[in-house]
Write a structure and sequence with these properties.
2 domains; five-stranded parallel beta sheet; Arc Repressor Mutant, subunit A; Rossmann fold; 8 helices; 22% strand
């Protein structure tokens, strides 16, 4: 099993959503390629062998169901469908085409990332990572965080914010980026991010020096 970043191919015809999904997965540490339709998919596939694929069902030309069948025939690549079609027959068609998971639009990007991660782990294509940043240890598989050997009790949302910062350690992330990646929208009150960063600091900083730095006028950076 390789420790290299897992490769994910995203096929979505809506440009804004395609970009958002790609950025969310890349921010979580995956190597990502994106395509807009079946023809673009074929070109990408010729040089990019994905460990998993995120496919919209309603694509122009060759639809996502057919693309999934091609992936399964070529190498049983795990597939997660994203679609606005929520009928039972639609779901059954997706699973018949080989879907490993299915998520309805609209969705929170953090949930999609979690589902892709879960699919990769179930199929043995992803090493369950334990990430260490100084004395901070994030175990994504066990959903635990510790610092200096002390387990820190975090809510699910607090852990998602911290996980996003850990995956982007050393980089300054804006409040808008954090809102988009963790909550799935960027038009909320940025004070929401400030509140969660404040909570994280309160819980983390009692065990050592401050990890989450404020970059004035831009956002936050977790010290690498």
């Amino acid at each position: 099993m390789s420790t290299a970043p897992a490769r994910v191919l995203v096929v979505e015809d809506e440009p804004a959503l395609r970009s958002a999904i790609g950025q969310a997965l890349a921010g979580a540490g995956f190597t990502v390629e994106t395509a807009a339709d079946g023809a673009d998919f074929a070109r990408r596939l010729a040089r990019f062998r994905p460990d998993a694929a995120v496919l919209d069902i309603n694509l122009p030309g060759e639809n996502g169901l057919r693309l999934a069948q091609r992936l399964k025939a070529a190498g049983d690549t795990p597939v997660l469908f994203v679609t606005a079609r929520d009928g039972v027959d639609d779901r059954l068609a997706g699973f018949s085409a080989g879907a490993d998971d299915y998520i309805l639009k609209p969705f929170v990007l953090a949930e999609l990332v979690a589902r892709v991660t879960a699919v990769l782990r179930r199929t043995g294509r992803l090493v369950s990572p334990t990430i260490e940043v100084g004395d901070l240890v994030l175990d994504e598989d066990a959903a635990t965080v510790s610092r200096g050997g002390t387990v820190i009790d975090l809510t699910a949302t607090e852990r998602r914010v911290l996980t996003y910062l850990v995956h982007n350690r050393g980089r300054t992330m804006s409040k808008t980026q954090i809102l988009t990646q963790v909550w799935g929208y960027d038009n909320a009150d940025p004070n929401l991010v400030e509140a969660y960063v404040s909570i994280l600091r309160r819980k983390l900083d009692v065990h050592g020096p401050r990890l989450i730095q404020t970059v004035r006028g831009i956002g936050y950076r977790l010290q690498a």
